[in-house]
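Fill in residues.
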């Protein structure tokens, strides 16, 4: 096998991986957006369509659970923390100092996000909220699926309460 075919194979694999990653991230975003939008409408949150805008959907999530939160302006804090992480990661050069600062920001943002998710789970399925929280920490790729699945209005299901 010559170098040209190895490079071509690598490029094909790299492009396929990028496409697959893009599709998964897009699917996660859509599931999140649908779930957050549904619950925001049900909870009479102002501007529920903001759930369809990347990063701003965290604001909408915070607004959904604001009444149950002990943190004022949770929606704004969630949006700000996610935006700072995004900008910090993509626009600052990586060295030890910036990495350590990023790590601290990441942990703080993660804790706030899990707090908001726990409140969301308590709102939509209070009996299993702790289970969703623990499984979401262990398997974070499931969070968008749960946000979507738990957003369905159970009062419209006749069989749910039979």
């Amino acid at each position: 096998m010559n170098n040209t075919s190895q490079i071509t194979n690598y490029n094909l694999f790299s492009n396929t991986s990028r496409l697959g990653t893009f599709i998964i991230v897009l699917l996660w975003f859509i599931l999140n957006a649908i779930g957050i939008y549904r619950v925001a409408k049900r909870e009479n949150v102002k501007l529920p369509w903001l759930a369809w805008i990347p990063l701003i959907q965290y604001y909408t999530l915070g607004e959904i659970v604001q009444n149950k939160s002990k943190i004022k302006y949770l929606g704004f804090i969630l949006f700000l923390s996610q935006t700072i992480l995004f900008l910090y990661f993509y626009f600052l050069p990586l060295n030890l100092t910036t990495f350590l600062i990023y790590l601290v920001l990441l942990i703080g943002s993660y804790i706030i996000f899990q707090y908001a998710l726990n409140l969301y789970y308590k709102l939509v399925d209070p009996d299993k909220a702790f289970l969703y929280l623990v499984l979401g920490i262990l398997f974070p790729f499931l969070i968008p699926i749960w946000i979507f699945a738990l957003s369905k209005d159970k009062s419209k299901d006749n069989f749910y309460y039979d």
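Residues 3-161 form one domain.
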